[in-house]
Design brief:
This protein is an alpha+beta fold. It has one domain: Peptide Deformylase, CATH 3.90.45. About 30% of the residues lie in helices and about 30% in strands. The strands form two sheets. The chain has a five-stranded antiparallel β-sheet, with helices on both faces. A two-stranded antiparallel ribbon has the order 4-5. The radius of gyration is 16 Å and the shape is globular. Bound molecules: ligand GNR and nickel (II) ion (NI). Ligand GNR binds next to β1, β4 and α2.
Length: about 170
């Protein structure tokens, strides 16, 4: 297992569409392990492969809180197969947009079909934080960030803040 570097906006790779994974092999399983390790270390509740510069459709999620035992989810080629008409607003953050948060409205419930780490097709139904996180991660695979749901003005303010923060980090 290895920690990977997380890409920060405006890295162009965060705006690209990812390729489907063709075969679930040991390389893909190693990638998913690295992604989980990187996500837990960050710490975050989800991570998509393009956030570490791998342009493949793979995500990991663990929304269990600190007191519970870990509940890692590894998903390959995830697809939203249905979503509720009801929507809810969550304050979202993103490891690729450090220290910035915004209220984002999304469907409350979703159904997701994916391949597990053994290449077996699975389906889950999710609501609450898990549903939000699934949509946030699957968006990453299509080059979509939560800031894309904001006005251009708010999006540019967030980009400028992140760039300023990154400069102070580099000179520290
Ligand atoms: O760690 C994360 N927290 C979070 C909070 C609300 C909605 C979505 C997320 S995902 C984010 C990690 C991340 O950037 N995943 O791509
Ligand atoms: Ni994110």
């Amino acid at each position: 297992m290895a920690l990977r570097d997380i890409l920060i906006i405006p890295d162009p790779r965060l705006k690209q569409e990812c390729e489907p994974v063709a075969v679930v092999d040991d390389g893909v399983r190693a990638l998913l392990d690295d992604m989980l390790e990187t996500m837990y270390a960050a710490p975050g509740i989800g991570l998509a492969a393009p956030q570490i510069g791998v342009m493949q459709r793979a995500i990991v999620i663990d929304v269990a809180d600190d007191k519970e035992k870990p509940q890692p989810l590894k998903m390959i080629n995830p697809e939203i197969i249905w979503e509720s008409e009801d929507v809810a607003t969550y304050q979202e953050g993103c490891l690729s947009i450090p220290d910035q948060y915004a209220d984002i409205e999304r469907p409350v419930e979703v159904g997701v079909r994916y391949l597990d780490e053994n290449g077996k097709e699975q389906e889950i139904e999710a609501d609450g934080l898990l549903a939000t996180c699934l949509q946030h991660e699957i968006d990453h695979l299509d080059g979509i960030l939560f800031t894309d749901y904001l006005s251009a003005l708010k999006r540019n303010m967030i980009l400028k803040k992140v760039q300023k923060l990154q400069k102070t980090k580099q000179s520290a």
